[in-house]
Fold this protein.
Amino acid sequence: MSVEQVHAQCSIAGGGPAGMMLGFLLARAGIDVIVFEKHNDFLRDFRGDTIHPSTMELMHELGLLEAFLKLPHVKAPQINAQFGELATTVGDFSHLHVQCPYIAFMPQWDFLDFLADHAKRYPSFQLRMSTKVTGLIEEHAKVVGLRAEGPAGELDVHCDLVVGADGRHSTVREAAGLAIEEYGAPMDVLWFRLSRKPTDPGDPQGRFDAGRITIMLNRGDYWQCGFVIPKGHNERIRAEGLDAFRTKLAAAAPFAADRVEELQDWEPIKLLTVQVDRLTQWAKPGFLCIGDAAHAMSPVGGVGINLAIQDAVATANALWKPLREGVPTMAELHRVQSRRMWPTTMTQRLQLFLQNRVIAKVLQSHQSLRPPLVLRLIAKFPLLRRIPARLIGIGFRAEHVRTPEAHVGGVT
């Protein structure tokens, strides 16, 4: 069987938020780009569905915010938490100086379809679904393309740059042999749904009780629920039985206790294995990793998708001109890592601090909890709620669209 030969200026492995945003921005700048997604659609549940103010600012800069906000979503202007007996608002986004001072909970498949639809307006953009990237093509210690398998068979893609945006279990990262540092996590998360009533609270809910943590995200007609468990305890919890799990859940979310029976078996309860890691070097000649392929984030704060999108914007800003002129140099690839390493490192340090100093202690506790000092201060001085809102909603370094819009084939 013959192998299809394909040429592009840039090939992107992975059609998640980082890959789709980068593909869109490069195509918008007139770069010939192909995005490869191994699935035949974007419909997968319990992905990161939080769109933060920083991402909606980018939509505004692209002139797409009005159309974007027509997609189904639920607005969350604040985040609430109950730690033992103390209930308070942890983050208040309403004071951010942005177009959308709230978190939008939106199905990720809608977001990715939105990016794909707008990227396809540009003739230099290709999206190949049901096409799995299987490896890299290297010549003289330089990546010059990738190999993939699609519906019509195998293909070799020759390009000036391969970008790995295929997630925390990145195939191309492994093929490139880039070293990764792992920082560990004391917890995993069980994700599932419960129906939601109009009389239920509207804002995201986080409840910390001795030995358990429950997160509930308002998705309109249902709650997306996260039940945080000690690392590696999934089998132990299942062995205790579904009745025991439903009892714990009812105690953690009393307003939804009448709905825990909706969980009739373990099948709809999915395990998210939490990991935090980071590449020491994001690039090698002809190759670059971004998003989860470069740094797996903890679910703390729900910032992973937005950090990946910021990576994509920084990458497009730094590399659209080098790609237009030829092959990006290592110095130009390192510029992306240099730009994004600081916000990545700072975010992970904050997540690790909360994981190790707060979450781990709660999960190990067998008696009533005393709220940490920072939470008591936030409860006493409401002005402090703006700090978590800033860190979650905007992050340590917000990126802005610096790429031009090509006028190609009537597209403007």
